[in-house]
Amino acid sequence: MEGIRYPKENTLYKKKEYTQIGQSKPRIDGVSKATGAGKYCGDLKFPNMLYGKMLTSPHAHAKILSIDTSEAEKIPGVIKVITHKDVPDLKYGISPARWDENVLCIDKVRFVGDKVAAVACVDEETCYKALKAIKVEYEVLPAVLDYRTAMNEDMPQIHEEYPRNINTEIHQLFGDVDKALEEAYHVRTDVFEGQRTYQCPIEPHSAISIWKDNKLTVYSSTQSVHYFQYYIAREFGLKMGDVRVIRPLVGGGFGGKLEPTGLEFNGAVLSRLTGRPVKMFYDRAEMFAHNRGRHQGHYEITTGVSKEGKILAAKANFVLDGGAYTSLGIATAYYAGGLLPLTYDFENYQFDLVRMYTNLPACGAQRGHGAPQPKYAFESHLDNVAEDLGIDPIEIRKRNARQANTNTCNGMGIQSCYLSEALDKIEEITDWKAKKEKGLPKGRGIGMATGSFVTGAGYPIYRNDYPSSSCMVRVNEDGTSATLYANAIDIGQGSDTVLCQMTAEAMGYRYENMKIVTGDTETAPLDFGAYSSRQTAYCGWACKRAGEEIKAKILETAGFMMHLPPEDLECEEGIIFSKSRPKVEPITFEEAAKKYFIIKGPLVGTGVYTVPRLGGYHKGAPVATSPSYSFCTQAAEVQVDEETGEIEVLHAWDVHDAGQIINPALMKGQVHGAFGMGFSETVMEEVVFNKDGKIINPDVGGYRIITALDMPNFTNDLIPSNDEPATPWGLKEIGEGSNNPTMGAVRNAIYDATGVNIATLPLSYEKVWRAIKEKKEKEQAAK
Amino acid sequence: MYLPDFDYYVPASVAEACQLLAENIDCAKVISGGTDLLPKMKHGLLSPQILVSIKKIPGLRKIEYVQGKGVVIGAASTINDIVFSEVVQQKYPSVSNAAHTMAANQVRHSGTVGGNLVSAVPSADMPPILMALNATATIEGPNGQRQLPVEDVFCGPSKCLLEKSEIITEIIIPDQAMTGSTYFKFALRRAGALAVVGVAAAVQVENDVIKDARVALGAVAPVPMRAKKTEEFLIGKKISDELLEEAGKIAASECKPITDFRASEEYRRDLVRIYTKRALRKAIDHGHI
Q1: B194 and chain A: CB distance < 8 Å anywhere?
Q2: Which phi and psi (to 5°) does residue A282 adopt?
Q3: Cα distance between residue A321 and residue A297, in whole Å
Q4: Which of A709, B89, B205, B231 is least surrounded by CB atoms within 10 angstroms?
Q5: Residues linked to residue A355 through DSSP beta bridges, in sequence order
Q6: In angstroms, how far is CA B263 from the centroid of its own chain?
């Protein structure tokens, strides 16, 4: 409404900030979760329901010679026992080129925990009795347990179709790396090694399958009802319309609940064969065995820099341990190198990677997907380079920082970007210069790193031409509430809350009057779900468009009611008023909505969002593309006990370029959680195997995740902006980029505190102790 | 992870409990807090058909000072009872603080001190400080009552010297000549973690000379152990940093740690050295803390 002058006394019009977004509205599911009233999949019960469990392999690699289920079938209460003969033999996985996993193993098992048989019984206790009574004869084969030697010619082959156990191979070259390295002032190579970590969400995986009258309904603890619907329908040759997937509350996913598991597939078969609902679930140890956590990798990074520290070329040479199956690992592999050129601008880049099969549980997507360990390697390496050149770590990053409206050498387009500002700010709020000049007390160190991540993957999780997100809003007949129907999945990150905030904002309505129905393929329209930090942006577009449609409809009705042209009307927080005539009595959203229903029927708005085509044309170009990227810097100040190696993070800082913030409290929660997770992965977490490939710490006592007591004081800061054109209101992701710099920042702080380099993650107290001890011994020998 | 079926008895007296245990000698177990027993049952490591709860027996959950006896802690007192006990906090804050290092709040609310002893977990947090303070356990069975020093309760990992029909009813911390005591726990995170090394030290200091010393180590031997060579070395010596460093070295050499996925033997030994030194210093300087 440019050009219209508004009388001052019109109290309803002021140049308002947003009324529904940008505010810490309480979580829409907060009370039900905090009081225990909310239901998770494991809480659900159905009449006549059976309990199901899977028998899994005790061997890392073995031929199945025979399976005898007869004894198990005799046990009272055992209703059905199934083996591979009872389930489809169609293999599944993320991409047609790598469908390599069976519902139940046919001829061999490939890791300790591989699926062999399944039972449905009247109760859980009987399930365990039945599992014990199934006799499986194995011929144990030599196993491949070390990904670094898995390629050797004398190694056993895990999958016939994949010679030398190579699951995925990537070779990308941009610019002229060799020439740039030759011309560089300084070239340095560092090697880092990651560890296997596991998402370990608080809620275990669980699924209830009900196959009745040719229709399959699956309740599941999932990050994507659509992906589950697609894969379950495909596995059983059903029409997608005959498969209904419902998500009850989900207690965390972090990437580990993105793909269907044996629970859904076997539960469906057991339900079909018994005609009864079947509930299947993992206990904590089974979750670890199923795994799909973070890949461990061997990361060799070489950069050539100018005297001033400008990166001229970078070479990334990685080997990943993929485990026994592909899972989501192809995407992981491409992400591992694809995201590295985001935060720093360089023209010449070579990325080589092999993802190996091993006889260990399959690895998949974990918060930050393939990026955190490579980023840790790169950020550690960059501090080493800065030290070689005598340049301050923040200064070298400033000299290479990504700028707005640029392209990366591997074809990613960046529009809004405030990384330089975030670097300035982290320097300021950490008091970096003073700490570097005056020095810190003994055993104290400070380190920092940068991060970035996709605001939604540019391409869908499986090949299709559907839009990325869609939604529908229906206003209640009397206008007193509006319900958002969306299949964006709230796994704890708060998408239900922010989507309702955004919808209310677009409608001119109130968040407090919003209801939401999500996670049901039969009720709400398609969304690919919660992964790649896409929900707020992608489903946000759909919500914005649906909300704007409602608003347009309601203003038209209000115009009729108020005898004013709709263009002159505005609706904010449920009040409809004239922009030019302050004396006209406003009416309420409720009044107009009710009138609309009386005249025209249901007041409904729909919204849809499709990502435009993005990225280059090289092999693997789609992975790491996104309409928008977040940027951030993080710093940590640590105290290391030089005698014991114990590490304490005293304080941590995060400066985020996350565009328009929809809900500041949830944003902070994401950043705190991400830092905690990153710190935990840097210092504590590791899935440990014995020499036979069995996990020895599959529980929350042995697999150490930091506790609240280990969490440092934290400062959240922002570079506020809303100029990102590719997202609704100029928002950017927050969930995964916030985990991208953490490992590097903590490692750099530990190095600053101790002067010791530790080559392998986690940087455990014992490794720090050993490294300090060896350093002292070396120093004494030199004297 | 499924808790198998069992019968559950709630006797009203120690005698009744002992009788129940004696009658079902091979298939009954005592349950108190259950924090150790129930996970073992869920994992199928133990499968008792009968659980005898001692939670409701009057008098087993009390903490008081008895003149001439010492601080008496009922065996069914929870770890948090000890953490928050005014008597313990007043007489031996070191015991209260040691209890506070254990596990996490939920476990401390449920787990009991008697259970922490009879479970005989090498890394348990209560035994070292109780051993350093020369505490004894009162044990009752069908044949009556006996006293056993806490350090003699254990005979191997998860093994203790109680008969199957006996239960610990109380732990007594006698009046002390010791002027200071403390427990240092090294764990790999700040809560919910087992001790990688636990060191308790108690000292009697007079005019800068150590008149008596008791050092007890957790998680570095099949059972919580006294570092007797370290104690002998310390007694009668004048306090100095060098002395404590040397004591740490002796403790490191006399402990018998193993390597597991939490820590190597070598690391544990060095931690014993460091924590013995630090624990002694703290007990010397700050009393029972």
Answers
A1: yes
A2: -95, 145
A3: 6
A4: A709
A5: A168, A320
A6: 21
Beta bridge partners of B180: B203
Token pair in block for residue B39: 């996970």
pLDDT, one tens digit per residue, over A119-132 is: 999 999 999 999 99
- The answer to whether residue B104 neighbours chain A at the CB level (below 8 Å) is yes
In the predicted structure, residue A555 carries a pLDDT above the cut 50: yes
Which chain B residue shows the shortest CA-CA distance from A771? B267
Amino acid B84 reads F
Q: What is the per-residue pLDDT across B110-153, written as a single tens digit (0 to 9) for each? A: 999 999 999 999 999 999 999 999 999 999 999 999 999 999 99
Q: What is the distance between the alpha carbons of residues A76 and A9, in angstroms, rounded to a whole number? A: 81
**pLDDT (tens digit, 9 = 90+) per residue, A130-153?**
999 999 999 999 999 999 999 999
Q: Which of B188, B192, B194 sits opposite A765 (nearest CB)?
A: B188
- Chain A nearest C-alpha distance from B18 (Å): 31
Complete DSSP assignment for A92-133: B-SSGGG--B-SS-SSEE-STT-EEEEEEESSHHHHHHHHHH
CA B18 to chain centre: 23
The span from the CA of A647 to the CA of A645, in Å, is 6
- Spatial CB neighbours of A278, under 8 Å, sequence gap ≥ 6: A49, A50, A51, A52, A120, A208, A209, A210, A267, A270, A271
Look up residue A752 and give its amino acid. D
Rg of the Cα atoms in chain B: 19
Task: Report whether B140 contacts B169 (CB < 8 A).
Answer: yes
Give the distance from CA B176 to its chain's centroid. 18
Alpha helices in A111-224 (DSSP H): 124-133, 177-183
Q: Taking CB atoms and an 8 Å cutoff, what residues of chain B touch A688?
A: 261
Residue A415 has pLDDT above 80, yes or no: yes
Q: Does the structure show a pLDDT above 50 at B231? A: yes
Six-digit token pair at A260? 């269907």
Please indicate whether, in this complex, the C-beta atoms of B191 and A700 are within 8 angstroms of each other.
no
What is the average per-residue pLDDT within A239-251?
97
Domains and CATH numbers, chain A: 30-38+468-609 (3.30.365.10), 42-141+204-250+257-290 (3.90.1170.50), 296-458+617-777 (3.30.365.10)
Collapsing DSSP states into helix, strand and coil, what is residue B28?
Answer: strand
Which strands form B180-186's sheet, in the order they lie side by side? B180-186, B197-206, B209-218, B225-226
Could you give the maximum distance between any two Cα atoms of chain B, in Å? 61
Inspect the interface and report whether the beta carbons of B192 and A707 lie closer than 8 Å: yes
Q: Quick check: B192 and A696 CB within 8 A? A: no
Q: Cα angle at A420 between A754 and A494, to 5 degrees?
A: 85
B-chain CB neighbours of A285 within 8 Å are 1
Domains in chain B, CATH or no CATH each: 7-53 (3.30.43.10), 63-173 (3.30.465.10), 180-286 (3.30.390.50)
Interface test with B, best of A691, A699, A711, A765 (most B CBs within 10 A): A765
Q: Which residue from A284, A646, A697 is facing B261, i.e. has the nearest CB?
A: A697
Angle (nearest 5°) at CA A678 between B262 and A292: 75
Q: How far is CA B70 from CA A252, B89, B134, B144, in A?
A: 50, 14, 11, 22
Q: Do B194 and A701 touch (CB under 8 A)?
A: yes
What would the mean pLDDT of A78-107 be, rounded to a whole number?
95
CB B65 within 8 A of CB B87: yes
Across the interface, of A284, A688, A700, the residue whose CB is closest to B1 is A284
- Residue with the two structure tokens 């398609």: A526
Cα(A77)–Cα(A523) distance, integer angstroms: 36
Closest alpha carbon to A281 in A227, A207, A351:
A207
CA A323 to chain centre: 19
Tokens encoding B30? 């005592």
Whole-angstrom Cα distance, residue A699 to residue A287? Answer: 9
- Answer whether B264 sits within 8 Å of A766, measured CB to CB: yes
Residue B120 identity (one-letter amino acid): A
